[in-house]
Each structure stands twice: as structure tokens, then as C-alpha cells.
Design a protein that fits this description.
The structure is a single chain. By secondary structure, the protein is mainly α. The protein has one domain. Helix content is about 85%, strand content about 0%. The protein is built from 13 helices and no strands. The longest helix has about 45 residues. The model has no long low-confidence stretch (mean pLDDT about 90).
Length: about 325
């Protein structure tokens, strides 16, 4: 028993996972009871807001600001999808800003990332569904607002009280996130790529610093996807699609954002759940692997071009 406890504490963040479950559990029950996707959308926003507040150790005022920004971002990006260039500039600016903030304080990058993630995912999913999806997102406003408020309350009532020592993060390569994420976002919106949000985030998530940091993050994501996507496709073969099962897979994917301490197993688990979800819907789950590889390759190409130009001066 002691060995299992050590294994759990070493690899899993039980503190944050319990609080995420306190948010996603009721959202899943409400979704199954008739709230549908709108309830899960509110749950996703709640989870991301809570992670941002916890990892950024935000006070109640800044926590409210973060929740409001995440909520506004969901609605903004869903509208900007119709204008690929504007959508690309907005995503590029958000990714570059996350890097700049992370260079000043390491914890601020988590705040920026988990504000951008729900805005990108919920906004893109609604826009890709066309007019019904946009109508559904706007009708989900009370659910989204409730999710943001629930995260703020959980953070205020049961969050960590101690603030970490301020420490600078890793300075990113100037302009790499802006250029790469902007190009990927334009490709996703212009060509109406399925699951385009995966492609955009795959670029934003690896622009984490210098050459070594980007190399390590690319390897973690590529290896995690290479393990998770085939596993998810095999899992889908053993399952029968149903609305309840699809909602359960979505809720489980949100839990992986907080459960694992290490990034690679967390991303492998998310990739498996996403691949199973997409396979059950009749889609091509390999898209997730292609998105991760394409984004990593573009970032590497951009870095190589930058170093070559610097040497050519």
C-alpha cells in the first residue's frame, strides 16, 4: 500500500485532480441529464480556469479577471474563424503573449495558456459546426459563465493559500510563436481543416523557449501522440458509440489536464481519448498524429531558418 501511495504521489497530482473532479463531475451529470454539450462546455471552461488560477496562484481579483478573459475569448474566436487572417493574427498574438509573460514569471505562462486553450477549443469547435454551432455556443453563455464562476469559487474556497516565490521563466525565441501559430491558424481557418484547433495548439504548445526546450517539447508531444493515438483507435474497436460514452470520454480528457505530473503520459492519455472519441464518431483519428507532427516540423523549420539567417549576417 505504501508503494502504491508513493507511486501515486510521484506521478499524479491528487490535490488538483480532486478539485477538477469537483467541477467536471457535476458538469458531466448535468450533460447526461439533458444539458448536453453545453454543460460539458461549461465544465471545460471551469477546469481550464481552475488550473490557471491554481498554477498561477491568482488572488480572487485576478482570478475573476482570468475567468472573464477566458469567457470572452471563447466567444471572440468563434466569430473570428470566418476571417482567417484576423483569426490567425489573434491566435498568433495570444501565443506570443503567453511566451512573453512566461519569460517574466514562469507561472504566468500557465495562466496565459489555460486562458487561450478554452477560447481556442470551444471557439473553433463551434465555428466548425457552422451556424448551428455558433448558435449553440451563444446559447451556452449561461453554462460558460457558470463554469467560470464555479472555478473561481473552488479556487477561493478550497485553493492553495501560499503563493510561490516569483521566478522568471524561459525566454522564448522572439517571433517564433507568432509566425508559426499565425501560419497554422490561417491554414486551419482558410482550409476549414477538421479539428483545426489541434493544429493551432500543437504549434503554440511547443514554442516554450530556446532550441533545447522546443526540441524536448516536440519529442514529448510526438512520442505521446505516437503511443496514444493507436491505443485510442484500438480502444474504439471495443466500444459501442453512444452520446453518454462520448461525453464520458470528453470529461476524462479534461481530467488528464490535472491528473498527471509529467507532460508525456498526460498527452498520451489525452491523445488516446481524443482518438477514441473521433473514431467512434467515424472520423480519422490519425489527424491528431498528423497535426502534432506538422506543427513540430514547422516550428523546427522556423528555428532552422532563423539560425541560418543569423549566421548569414
Amino acid at each position: 500500500m505504501a508503494a502504491l501511495r508513493r507511486l501515486w504521489t510521484t506521478h499524479c497530482d491528487g490535490y488538483l485532480a480532486v478539485r477538477v473532479l469537483a467541477l467536471i463531475g457535476p458538469a458531466l451529470l448535468l450533460a447526461l441529464a439533458g444539458g448536453g454539450e453545453r454543460a460539458l462546455q461549461g465544465g471545460m471552461l471551469a477546469v481550464c480556469c481552475l488550473i490557471a488560477m491554481e498554477r498561477g496562484r491568482l488572488g480572487w481579483k485576478m482570478g475573476m479577471v482570468q475567468a472573464a478573459l477566458a469567457l470572452a475569448g471563447c466567444l471572440l474566436l468563434s466569430r473570428l474563424w470566418a476571417w482567417p487572417l484576423v483569426f490567425a493574427l489573434a491566435c498568433a498574438a495570444a501565443a506570443e503573449l503567453a511566451g512573453r509573460l512566461g519569460a517574466r514569471q514562469a507561472r504566468w505562462r500557465s495562466v496565459a495558456n489555460f486562458t487561450f486553450i478554452p477560447a481556442l477549443y470551444l471557439g473553433c469547435e463551434a465555428a466548425q459546426a457552422g451556424a448551428p454551432g455558433l448558435t449553440e455556443l451563444w446559447s451556452a453563455w449561461p453554462w460558460l459563465a457558470s463554469g467560470a464562476m464555479a472555478a473561481w469559487l473552488v479556487r477561493g474556497l478550497a485553493g492553495r493559500r501560499d503563493a510561490p516565490a516569483s521566478r522568471p521563466g524561459v525566454a522564448p525565441q522572439t517571433g517564433v510563436a507568432f509566425a508559426c501559430v499565425g501560419l497554422l491558424a490561417w491554414l486551419a481557418a482558410h482550409f476549414q481543416l477538421p479539428c483545426g484547433q489541434w493544429l493551432v495548439w500543437s504549434g503554440a504548445s511547443v514554442c516554450v523557449g530556446g532550441f533545447a526546450a522546443i526540441r524536448d517539447k516536440c519529442w514529448q508531444r510526438c512520442s505521446g501522440a505516437a503511443i496514444g493515438v493507436p491505443a485510442g483507435m484500438l480502444l474504439a474497436l471495443a466500444l459501442q458509440p453512444s452520446p453518454a460514452l462520448l461525453m464520458l470520454l470528453g470529461a476524462a480528457a479534461m481530467l488528464t489536464l490535472a491528473l498527471f505530473r509529467a507532460y508525456r503520459p498526460a498527452f498520451a492519455a489525452r491523445s488516446a481519448l481524443a482518438a477514441a472519441h473521433l473514431s467512434l464518431l467515424g472520423g480519422a483519428a490519425v489527424i491528431r498524429l498528423l497535426d502534432v507532427g506538422l506543427a513540430a516540423g514547422l516550428v523546427w523549420l522556423m528555428l532552422a531558418a532563423g539560425y541560418w539567417l543569423a549566421q548569414a549576417r
